[in-house]
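Run Glycosyltransferase family 2 protein through structure prediction, thanks.
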Amino acid sequence: MGPAPSSAIPPAASALRVRVLSAATADHFNSLRCMVSTLATTDPSAEVLVFALDESVASRDAALRAANPRLRVQPVNWSALPAFARVRPALRAKRDESLRAGHYAWKPLLISREAASREAPRRDATVWLDAEHRLRGRGVVGELVRRARAAGGVFSTRSAGTAAQWTHEGMIGRMYNRSAAAAAPSRAVLGRTRPARLAAWPNCDASTLALVHGSSAARELLEAWSACARDLSCIAPEGSSRANHRQDQAALTLLLQARSGLLWA
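Sure, done. The structure for Glycosyltransferase family 2 protein is below.
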């Protein structure tokens, strides 16, 4: 694994109504607590919702709320998600890494459900930060939202490599399948782009994602991203693994790049 992602950017000019989302299992609890504690200093007005991916995190919500008074912990309702999306911490073999993590399908599904909640219209934006994210400087979350607004409603940072290196051909085939009903949401975003361009597309860093409420870009992205996450043949096609595929990150890269070419710094 590479270094933990970070946001070292200048503060935003004004306060925003933002909810920050994150999630963790027991393995990442300490990183999560550090991140939300820092968030209480960098962006004290931001609401924080942490999805507990296992019972251990849910049982330690008091420690997280002590680190950030604007934080709430919510256990994941796994029955509302596809069975393959469930996190299975008991699986430890390297070959089971994607399966153990629920193929990371839970991430776009949880973000999409939260962005579509009754409370969402009362906020300006939703920002996702992975538990291991390192925040640097005041107003980081507000700046992510500002950049999302400037980019049309969605913003993410980039990571190493290209879409061609970290996207399994099975996902490409699934998302570009013009006849598959499951690919319909993707077609609205992918448009006339061609898979051949993937070698030139920087890989998206799905650890950071800012979504502006009310924007068509955010709405269409979430519809397509969550549609792929509900389809095992898309999010984790046969033959894919963490060695050749990045699940939620790969799908997000295809959708962001196809929409506007480059949405991250």
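The beta strands are 6-8, 18-24, 47-52, 71-75, 125-129, 134-136, 154-162, 202-212.
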